[in-house]
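> call design_seq(struct)
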């Protein structure tokens, strides 16, 4: 088998890279001619493809399809494209490929057509004043769009202008700016403006410039100084919190910085600390003010020594200031001052009940203006109870009324009054003094028994006790504890009664022997714990009730005892007087009724020619209430035939349900002349009937129990004369009723 040898590519079809300078102005420009060795009858068709031909940017390169010549049709810019890679093709007339596609590379050669560019127009840097030479401040840098591998982009830096001092230098290769000489002083020049340049071709090509601004940072190398050695000021006495004046300083350092701000100190002349000085942050001046009131009469002039320094410590290299101290003279002007109560408030004590006109204190003020002759007058500014009287010239306070407890104007036992002191200057000034008066309690009230009456069982040990209490109008310590005891004037009471202490305000009354039911009056002696103690004998009304099995009062007995309990001597006298008056009136009334009844029986009906039946009117019924309105039926008088013995008598509505009819019917009157006898017989029948109460008796509206020690009021109508009453029981009521027993017993 015959082996083929490897195909050899023709040298004419292998195209080396082609170099062309950017910005070439001869257009069109022949770059290269390509040729295929495989010539066919009729010729070869050449073509190229790639960027600059059929791809963006279009139309830069073209080829003659018959000769294979490649042309440049536009100016090239290396900064946009530094090379182009194309593909070349060889075809026969029928379009068949004669050669494999080959690469065509076009390299754009750089030209120095771009100036260097600084990254910013102005560079800013800072360095402290007094910096040593070689202290780097900042770095300026620039760029060049040309080929960095050529001198077209080789940059060099320089300082074109910085003033005559020449305080800074720049590194030509890196652009770093540093200090070149000593003596940087912010107070002399605070800002340096440098013009820097960047040039390509290693400094011989295209150039550009920028600004480098260098600020010197301040240090405290200048001490503050007073503008003069002595200042004079003036202030009124008693003024507090006011500014007296200013002291002025000067500092060369940067205004507003800590190296510029001043700090003032008062070294001498103010031992009491009456003055203070602060710094005005806007002007850096010292402001002197008064923090304590000044008194012209005590001291009228001050000489202050002040110092000034910065808030930041001074640099060691800074020179000392010859004006770091100053003298300030302050004169105190005299003004009218208000009077002063040296003791405010004034506290005094006064016994309650102090009589009017009693001097209790002299409350005066003093005038601080000792260099002026002034007169003080006094007035009461506040006296809510109108208890006091004040001497306007001497300030002596006297009582106007009796000071008593209790009072709505006392607060915790204290009475508060306000006094006004005024001078006679122009304009006048005044002061207010507080007078606190303690009203001391006096034991002027004895304890009072509360309550003054009670009920207890009459058996010892079985409910035979009563809790007693007392009150006292005096305040502690003149009140409780209270002491209860039976009156020493009646020693016989100790046989039946005893008193034991329960607590500081109460005691227990106990029965020692069984006592009969009834009222008892026990004289007790009550004493408080005041100094000196007050005691008073008081009467305790005790009602001894009927005892039950458990030692308590039975219901009926308790009601009766309660009704009689609590009767004092005055109330008992009123009851007795009322009873006697009722007895006298009842006797007179009964005698008058008897006389009128006899006159009526003798001929009342005979003197009248009218029918008596028409004159009987039912004006009022005091008997059985609403149920007896038909008790006296006038029809019996008008129509007696309806009420014959054969007819059934009407049933009385007020009679009990169990009551029957009368034993025998009464005979009715047959003529008007028999009406009087009929009425009398009816009254007699009603009085004789045991089942129906008569209308003129006292009705029982409420049951009040039994066993009352007092006689019932219904007993008044049981007799018509005083001779029928028995007053012997008055002798049993004790010595207080002995006089009544002698009069009526």
């Amino acid at each position: 088998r015959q082996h083929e040898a490897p195909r050899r590519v023709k040298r004419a079809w292998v195209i080396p890279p082609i170099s062309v300078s950017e910005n070439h102005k001869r257009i069109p420009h022949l770059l290269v001619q390509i040729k295929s060795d495989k010539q066919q009858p009729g010729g070869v068709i050449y073509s190229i493809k790639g960027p600059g031909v059929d791809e963006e940017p279009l139309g830069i390169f073209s080829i003659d399809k018959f000769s294979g010549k490649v042309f440049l049709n536009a100016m090239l810019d290396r900064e946009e494209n530094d090379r182009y890679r194309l593909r070349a093709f060889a075809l026969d007339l029928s379009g068949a490929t004669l050669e494999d596609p080959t690469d065509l590379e076009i390299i754009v050669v750089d030209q120095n057509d771009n100036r260097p560019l600084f990254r910013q127009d102005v560079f800013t840097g800072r360095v402290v004043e007094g910096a040593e030479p070689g202290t780097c401040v900042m770095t300026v840098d620039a760029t060049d769009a040309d080929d960095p591998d050529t001198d077209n982009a080789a940059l060099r830096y320089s300082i074109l202008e910085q003033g005559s001092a020449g305080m800074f230098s720049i590194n030509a290769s890196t652009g770093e700016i540093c200090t070149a000489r000593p003596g940087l002083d912010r107070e002399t020049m605070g800002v340096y403006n440098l013009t820097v340049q960047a040039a390509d071709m290693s400094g011989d090509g295209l150039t550009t410039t920028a600004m480098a601004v260098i600020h010197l940072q301040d240090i405290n190398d200048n001490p503050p100084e007073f503008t003069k050695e002595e200042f004079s000021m003036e202030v009124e006495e008693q003024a507090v919190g006011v500014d007296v004046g200013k002291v002025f300083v000067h500092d060369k350092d940067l205004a507003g910085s800590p190296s510029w701000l001043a700090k003032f100190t008062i070294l001498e002349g103010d031992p009491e600390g009456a003055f203070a000085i602060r710094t005005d942050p806007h002007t850096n001046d010292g402001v002197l003010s008064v923090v304590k009131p000044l008194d012209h009469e005590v001291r009228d002039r001050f000489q202050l020594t002040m110092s000034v320094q910065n808030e930041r410590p001074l640099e060691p290299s800074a020179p000392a200031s010859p004006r770091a101290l100053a003298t300030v003279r302050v004169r105190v002007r005299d003004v009218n001052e208000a009077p002063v109560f040296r003791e405010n408030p004034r506290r005094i004590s006064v016994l309650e009940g102090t009589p009017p006109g009693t001097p209790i204190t002299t409350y005066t003020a003093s005038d601080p203006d000792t260099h002026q002759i002034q007169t003080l007058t006094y007035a009461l500014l506040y006296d809510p109870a109108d208890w006091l009287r004040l001497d306007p010239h001497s300030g002596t306070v006297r009582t106007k009324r009796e000071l008593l407890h209790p009072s709505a104007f006392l607060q915790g036992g204290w009475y508060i009054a306000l006094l006004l002191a005024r001078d006679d200057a122009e304009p006048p000034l005044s002061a207010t003094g507080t007078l606190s008066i303690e009203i001391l309690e006096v034991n002027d009230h004895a304890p009072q028994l509360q309550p003054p009456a009670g009920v207890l069982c009459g058996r010892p040990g079985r409910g035979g006790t009563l809790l007693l209490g007392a009150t006292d109008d005096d305040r502690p310590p003149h009140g409780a504890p209270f002491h209860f005891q039976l009156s020493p004037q009646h020693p016989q009471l100790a046989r039946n009664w005893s008193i034991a202490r329960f607590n500081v305000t109460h005691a227990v009354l106990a029965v020692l022997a069984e006592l009969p039911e009834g009222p008892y009056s026990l004289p007790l002696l009550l004493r408080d714990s005041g100094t000196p103690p007050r005691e008073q004998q008081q009467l305790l009304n005790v009602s001894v009730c009927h005892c039950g099995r458990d030692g308590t009062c039975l219901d009926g007995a308790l009601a009766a005892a309660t009704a009689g309990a609590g009767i004092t001597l005055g109330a008992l006298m009123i009851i007795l007087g009322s009873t006697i008056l009722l007895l006298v009136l009842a006797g007179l009334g009964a005698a008058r009724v008897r006389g009128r009844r006899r006159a009526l029986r003798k001929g009342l009906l005979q003197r009248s020619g009218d029918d008596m039946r028409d004159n009987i009117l039912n004006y009022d019924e005091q008997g059985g209430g609403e149920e007896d309105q038909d008790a006296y039926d006038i029809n019996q008088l008008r129509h007696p035939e309806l009420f014959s013995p054969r007819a059934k008598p009407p049933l009385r509505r007020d009679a009990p349900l169990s009551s029957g009819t009368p034993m025998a019917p009464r005979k009715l009157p047959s003529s008007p002349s028999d009406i009087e006898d009929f009425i009398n017989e009816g009254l007699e029948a009603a009085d004789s009937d045991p089942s129906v109460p008569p209308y003129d008796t006292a009705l029982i509206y409420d049951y009040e129990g039994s066993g009352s020690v007092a006689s019932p009021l219904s007993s008044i109508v049981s007799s018509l004369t005083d001779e029928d009453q028995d007053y012997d029981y008055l002798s049993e009521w004790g010595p207080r009723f002995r006089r009544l027993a002698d009069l009526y017993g």
